[in-house]
Inverse folding.
């Protein structure tokens, strides 16, 4: 009986080993051909033979390098002033504000053309060339010489024109350039008899009558001795071009130093701008009050504002902008702010 027990124990032990042995799976040995190496139960490429999978080496944590921020030097006060002046020139030209543009040229050029003559010729030349847009590209200063570069769009084509900025007293002024160099009646009126007639009236220069063709006799007659102011006003009003009428009446008012021609403009804006130029010729902004009320009525704040704006454009005296009575009127307030920016917006 004891022997049988030993046999059973031995049989149980053998059965246990058999069960354990059958449950274990023998893993096959992984063999990799060079240049591969074993990683776990698989092969991976190890081309540089450093016993590290190449794919693992390619995963890099890139360090974020913070580069110091280099701030550009702020423009100097002079550079800012030069840019503001050139920008004001571009804006005036782009808006076709020729009276304002005239005041931004250097003294000798302004003496060559009174404001009305410049206005007439520049407007004609501008239209003839088909200028649609003007913008400031840059202002450069090299060896003390400052140059403004303008992008001018003419009939869909862009051209860059450069102009020298010079110092005149305490202000900046522009040298003549581009078509301003050759701005003449011959250039803008060629083949147009009525244009020569208009320019003769505006410039009060009888010599242009000889170029007025079919209007020559009438033109010469207008310069006859003893022609009354009323007759000369009528000559201006009879002109076909709307802007030429305004220029002619303003020119006559300045020449005779009287306000009457201004009243014959068709619209308020031209009427009271004419008075503003007359006030500038008299070098007294207070003249706006006198001229606007010259027909017995005090005039509106808007009418006086037109006068003051024209005064400032000609005289460059932005202190006169304070004379605009803006009170609670949003439009007049905006016009006053624009007045202060006429020269340096």
């Amino acid at each position: 009986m004891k022997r049988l027990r030993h046999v059973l124990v031995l049989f149980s032990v053998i059965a246990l080993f058999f069960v354990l042995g059958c449950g274990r799976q023998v893993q096959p040995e992984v063999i990799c051909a060079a240049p591969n190496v074993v990683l776990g139960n698989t092969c991976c490429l190890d081309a540089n033979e450093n016993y590290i999978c190449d794919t693992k080496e390619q995963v890099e944590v890139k360090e974020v390098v913070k580069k110091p921020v280099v701030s550009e030097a702020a423009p100097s006060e002079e550079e800012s002033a030069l840019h503001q002046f050139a920008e004001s020139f571009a804006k005036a030209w782009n808006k076709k504000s020729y009276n304002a543009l005239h005041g931004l040229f250097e003294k000798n050029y302004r003496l060559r053309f009174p404001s009305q003559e410049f206005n007439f010729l520049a407007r004609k030349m501008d239209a003839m060339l088909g200028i649609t847009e003007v913008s400031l590209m840059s202002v450069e200063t090299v060896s003390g010489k400052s140059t403004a570069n303008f992008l001018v769009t003419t009939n869909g084509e862009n051209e860059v024109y450069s102009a020298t900025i010079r110092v005149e007293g305490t202000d900046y002024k522009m040298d003549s350039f581009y078509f301003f160099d050759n701005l003449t009646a011959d250039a803008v009126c060629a083949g147009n008899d009525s244009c020569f007639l208009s320019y003769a009236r505006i410039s009060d220069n009888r010599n242009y009558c000889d170029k007025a063709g079919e209007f020559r006799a009438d033109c010469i007659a207008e310069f006859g001795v003893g022609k009354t102011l009323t007759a000369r006003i009528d000559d201006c009003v009879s002109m076909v071009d709307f802007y030429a009428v305004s220029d002619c009446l303003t020119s006559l008012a300045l020449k005779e130093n009287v306000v009457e021609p201004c009243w014959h403009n068709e619209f308020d804006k031209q009427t009271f701008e004419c008075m503003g130029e007359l006030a500038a010729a008299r070098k007294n902004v207070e003249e706006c009050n006198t001229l606007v009320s010259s027909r017995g009525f005090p005039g509106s704040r808007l009418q006086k504002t037109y006068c003051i704006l024209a005064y400032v454009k000609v005289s460059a005296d932005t202190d006169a902008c304070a004379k605009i009575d803006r009170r609670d009127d949003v439009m007049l307030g905006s016009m006053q702010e624009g007045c202060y920016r006429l020269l340096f917006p």
In short: The chain has a mean pLDDT of 84. Residues 2-23 form the longest helix (22 residues).
